[in-house]
Amino acid sequence: MLKFILPSLLVIITSFNLYSQKLCEESFPTNGIFKTPDPSIIIIAGYLQLKWFNVETCEFVDSLVYHKENLTAMKTGISSDGKTAVVRFENQDGLVSLTRYNLETKESGVDYDLTEFSQFATRNGFHISNDGERLIILSGKDQKLSEHNLVTGELIRFVNTPTIGLSHIRISNDGSLIGIFGLGSNTDNEIYLYESENLELIKIIRFRDYFEESDIETNFSFNFDPISNDLYLGSKNSLIKINPITLDKKVILENQILSFQALDKTPDGNKLVLAGLGSNWRICVIDLDSDNVFYFLNERSTYITVGNNFIISANPEFSNNIKKLGLVTNVINNIKGYKIDVYPNPTSGILNISLENNHPSNINIKLYDINGKQISTLYDDFYSDTVFSNDYNISNFLNGQYLLGITVNQKKNVVNVILEK
Q1: Could you tell me if 370 and 22 are in contact, meaning their C-beta atoms sit under 8 angstroms apart?
Q2: What distance in Å separates the CA atoms of residue 59 and residue 52, rounded to the nearest whole number?
Q3: Which of 12, 131, 147, 407 maximizes the CB count within 10 A of its CB?
């Protein structure tokens, strides 16, 4: 875990033009992004259709229109082989239906019988198993799981859950585990881990056992690691990773808003990307190979998919909401010989900048806008002590994201600063 004297937000890159480079934009209101076996193609789910998107050329290459009169697609699930989709439709009266689509023939198939499911706990209340043969549904009516044959829609079984309220469901990378977020009998936030094949409850993970008391009343989120079966749990103030077998805990980040809407990992496993953080729905990139150095992108997003050098992001807006962003690939740690701390971040206006160096140094601190244009020089002088700590007032600038260029003896660091007055 990256440790600082004070909680801070640190990003160190070698040049401004690599930071969150916007590679393309498209407009398509969406409720999900899905990978396919072809790494160059993703499927973007919308309210009236599915679209296939080439991430290399930034072009839509195919589509499937639902043709459901007076119904809107509010949630989509797609099998890991990219051949089957299940779509949750709603009308203005709250009527819910689920329909399966063959994505190879672009034809609709079975409508699932929902007579036992007057409502779901949330729109995340179903998931296609990784083997592409079963559909798992959460019932918000009686806190049950149901398992269906994906092709025929036949009900296989019901399973009771030990909860007073179900929320959403996740399936592990290899398909062996199902995780369900819910409330326990004492209203604690809990994750119920089921063995996928037999829907047998094997573990209950209580958030109270892993987070500080001050975090207990805040929103929580969880998802499986896209490569391993580890679980990531996010809260208002921290992100942790848990081994679902041993329940060993590892803190990834602290002192940041890290309750997320979506999570993905670069195929090489080096970077973890979170989306939908905080009220601004921000994206956070964590460099796992560089002692968890991290930075935020100035983009709103609720859905993401990640390559080794790019992020495909979709936000809740209706215009230019599909974006391909360049992923910074050369994040490094503090330059050897000194430490940097910027606090608080986000800031309401007063920013403390602290440097701990081995010897007196020439220090230059400049503030840039998100495009790399210099807007202020905060400090430019020789500093005779080994510990530098000054407060700066940046409240006269507009709310948003800024870059802080800190140069010590010609060695430059860049810190991402967020101003929220």
Answers
A1: no
A2: 9
A3: 12
